[in-house]
Amino acid sequence: MFGPEVAMDELAEACGLDPIELRIRNEPDTDPDSGKPFSSRHLLECLAVGAERFGWEKRSAAPRSRLEDRWQVGLGVAAATYPFNRIAENAALIEFNADSTHTVQIGAADLGTGTWTTLTQIAADALGCEVQAVRLEIGDTSLPVASVAGGSSGTASWGAAIIAAAVAFRAEHGDDPVPGARTRASAAADPAADHYAMHSFGAQFAEVQVHADTGEVRVPRMLGVFSAGRIINPRTARSQFIGGMTMGIGMALHEESLMDERFGIFTNHDLAGYHIPTHADIGEVEATWLEETDHRAGPLGARGIGEIGITGAAAAIANATYNATGIRVRELPLTPDKFIF
Amino acid sequence: MKPFEYLRARDAAGAVAAVTGHPGASFLGGGTNLVDHMKLGITAPDLLIDIARLPLDDIEELADGSVRIGATVRNSDLAAHRLIRERHRVLSEALLAGASGQLRNMATTGGNLLQRTRCTYFQDLGTPCNKREPGSGCSALEGVNRDHAVLGASASCVAVHPSDMAVALAALDARVVVLGPDGERSMQLTEFHRLPGDAPERDTVLEHGELITALELPARPGALSAYRKVRDRASYAFALVSVAAVLELDQDGTIREVRLALGGVAHKPWRATLAESLLRGTQPSEENFREAAQAELRSASALRDNAFKIPMARNTMVAVLRDLSGR
């Protein structure tokens, strides 16, 4: 998204339009790539909600308009989109225990994104029991087959298998199962997937400061507004969104691999040389989302959130540095040397 | 790992004797750089003499108002000390701009001065480096050299000294007190580190076995001072450019004395003596600061990736002087 969303910013300026207005005027009715209708597309709402919350109306269209205590201040925006693909090859096994709990098994993985929590919630919801009555088992390849924790597909793909297993379990064993009752089921493929373009969307807003003397770049404020279908757990979702945005700050300001081709070595091959943000680099990073359910995106109504948080973040920051300085940088990272002459 | 012997020194003279008589021996302070180098294979001492617990950890005011800092004072303690914060603020600011809290808790004053360049080619055993292996060549000269020197470099080495603390000390006219097998000697900090010339393997003028025991900061009543470090991120990164400045103004606002030192630009903390001489006796002004900075940097020369350091050093000198003279 970095190249296209910086290009959109350049296009908006060339047209004399606000970058949000440019996107409003060019909002497509159907997916320009496949020609299919979108399962759900609320990009303009994301932009509108974000503009309101972020104070976009305070942005001056002319670059280099704000100088505060030797810091040049600018605002930038970028759109975000990431495709949704639910992976059908998932199975789950549910067994009722003597202590009235359900063991729910699926070979899914928790990378730290909250899978333990969200799959427990999904299982409890589908089984009609309390979350305390679900004993989730994941993280073992001997468990029923599951797809990867990747491609922003995990929760929707695993969740669909758990729902399928819960529906089958209840049909097979009724409301009063006996201990030892067990059912294994696979998620059905998604008939809607072939007929709709399915994507998560977002709007990224950034405020940056570029020091007028030294070229240092800071990001005191970011806001992401996302449309990702149903959000299963607001706390873990927010954490994943702001984690992605934080990595986006790293992409924007710091991360770069430098190769010395004579020796075939990366010259910044440790964390002293390959910079990622420190706490001091991260200001106010906030994420919110539209309340919605995408009924075409599988039984959960949820699309993926794993990658949409970083998507567009670097472009929003680069566009904000242009607004701050009048210097257009098309090559990341936005290090001080690019703003000093 | 190469096996090595470890001994804890009882006193400074004993430590000096132990290292002097043993060519493969090295002093160990906080270990924040030496231990890294032993892991990377840059150095392989067969004897470590631990001097971190020697009673050299006092910070005291002497009768003439100067401050004496023991060599094993930890960076964090030095930064936080009342005498330093009140009288030599530039030093406190420089220390706090360096490394991380954890490292500052370990690193010693003497060790900070002796830390070695972070030049990637120095740290990578697979590439030639005159500093690590004299005569093998300088890989940075025509390699990735964004972090490298623009002042005082040579055809054999373009590395920069990584210390923030040393830059502040250069601006404070600090002296380094050293104990060797033949007794004590002392020198200006600006004479302590070397330019690379054709012997970049030697960072300093210390001889094998000589131990830093203290630093001395001359009294500078009424001086304002500040440290400004420009780096690629807000914390925990080495300086692209840094500036330490000490400024004394007369009653009428004329610059009575100014001392400027640059970090991140040379093989040693770079005292900007030309800029200082142009500024002494003048009125503080943006134009004067800029002219002086430009004059100092006229001898700078850029490599492939580091030309930005020259305007960055100029601007940062101007910015620090503007801030200080406006206080």
Overview of the structural elements:
- The complex is a heterodimer of chains A (341) and B (327).
- Chain A has two domains: 229 residues, 2-Layer Sandwich (Aldehyde Oxidoreductase, domain 4), CATH 3.30.365; 99 residues, Aldehyde oxidase/xanthine dehydrogenase, molybdopterin binding domain (Aldehyde Oxidoreductase, domain 4).
- Chain A has seven helices and eleven strands.
- Chain A has a five-stranded mixed beta sheet, with helices on both faces.
- In chain A, helix 1 packs parallel to helix 7 and helix 4 runs parallel beside helix 5.
- The longest helix of chain A is centred in the middle third of the chain and has 20 residues.
- The relative contact order of chain A is 0.20.
- The model of chain A has no long low-confidence stretch (mean pLDDT 96).
- Chain B is α+β, with helices and mostly antiparallel strands.
- In chain B, the strands form three sheets. In chain B, strands 4-5-8-6-7 form a five-stranded antiparallel beta sheet.
- Chain B is globular.
- The mean pLDDT of chain B is 97.
- Classes of the chains: A alpha+beta (341), B alpha+beta (327).
- Chains A and B meet through strand 9 of A and helix 13 of B.
- Chain B: This is Molybdopterin dehydrogenase FAD-binding protein.
- Chain B: InterPro entries: CO_DH_flav_C, CO_DH_flav_C_dom_sf, Diverse_Substr_Oxidored, FAD-bd_PCMH, FAD-bd_PCMH-like_sf, FAD-bd_PCMH_sub1, FAD-bd_PCMH_sub2, Mopterin_DH_FAD-bd.
The total strand number of chain B stands at 12
- Secondary-structure element order of chain A, as H and E? HHHEEEEHEHEEEHEEEH
CATH C-level class of the domain at 225-325 in chain B is Alpha Beta
Radius of gyration of chain A: 23 Å
Distance between the termini of chain A: 28 Å
Question: Order of strands in the sheet with the most strands of chain B?
Answer: 4-5-8-6-7
Largest sheet of chain B: 5 strands, antiparallel
Oligomer: heterodimer
Strand residue percentage of chain B? 15-25%
Number of helices of chain A: 7
Keywords (chain B): Oxidoreductase
GO molecular function, one term (chain B): oxidoreductase activity
Domain FAD-binding PCMH-type (chain B): 1-222
Organism (chain B): Paeniglutamicibacter gangotriensis Lz1y
